[in-house]
């Protein structure tokens, strides 16, 4: 999945917590979130927005970001509740590792392989 397709897919499925999201969809969307957040911060700093643009950006992307993370966990065969892992004692490192591993190549209980559906 390419960068524009990943962004489009994440926003199309912003309230869809079922199905699966490939690694490329998840990580391209994360890149988009970082770039948008940096732009909002820069505009706030130089435009005197007082943090309003950054706040609006964060509110606007919260649901799509959670949704794509849940679907990414579905891709590796885990429930979406794993997005809460950073709030535990074991923390962020296993969370990031799970987001980086390859998804199941076969259909799992959450649906078909998103890479095979895209072709």
Order of helices and strands: HHHHH
Q: Oligomeric status of the shown chains?
A: single chain
Rounded to an integer in angstroms, the radius of gyration calculated over CA atoms is 15 Å
Domains, number: 1
Biggest β-sheet: count, sense, barrel?
Answer: none
Please give the number of β-strands. 0
> What class, by secondary structure content?
mainly alpha
Low-confidence spans: pLDDT under 50, at least 5 residues? none
Overall pLDDT metric: 92
Which term fits the overall shape? Answer: globular
Range of strand content: under 5%
The end-to-end distance, rounded to whole angstroms, is 10 Å
Helical region count? 5
Helix content: 55-70%
Account of the protein in words:
The chain contains five helices and no strands. The chain has about 120 residues and is mainly α. The termini are close together. The chain has one domain (about 5-119). About 60% of the residues lie in helices and about 0% in strands. About 25% of the residues are buried. Helix 1 (about 5-10) packs across helix 2 (about 25-45) and helix 2 runs antiparallel to helix 3.
């Amino acid at each position: 999945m390419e960068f524009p397709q990943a962004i489009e897919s994440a926003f199309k499925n912003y309230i869809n917590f079922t199905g699966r999201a490939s690694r490329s969809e998840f990580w391209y969307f994360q890149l988009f979130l970082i770039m948008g957040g940096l732009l909002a911060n820069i505009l706030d700093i130089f435009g005197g927005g007082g943090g309003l643009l950054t706040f609006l950006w964060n509110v606007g992307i919260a649901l799509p970001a959670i949704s794509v993370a849940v679907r990414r966990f579905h891709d590796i065969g885990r429930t979406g509740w794993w997005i809460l892992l950073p709030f535990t004692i074991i923390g962020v490192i296993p969370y990031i590792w799970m987001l980086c591993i390859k998804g199941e190549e076969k259909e799992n209980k959450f649906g078909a392989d998103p890479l095979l559906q895209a072709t």
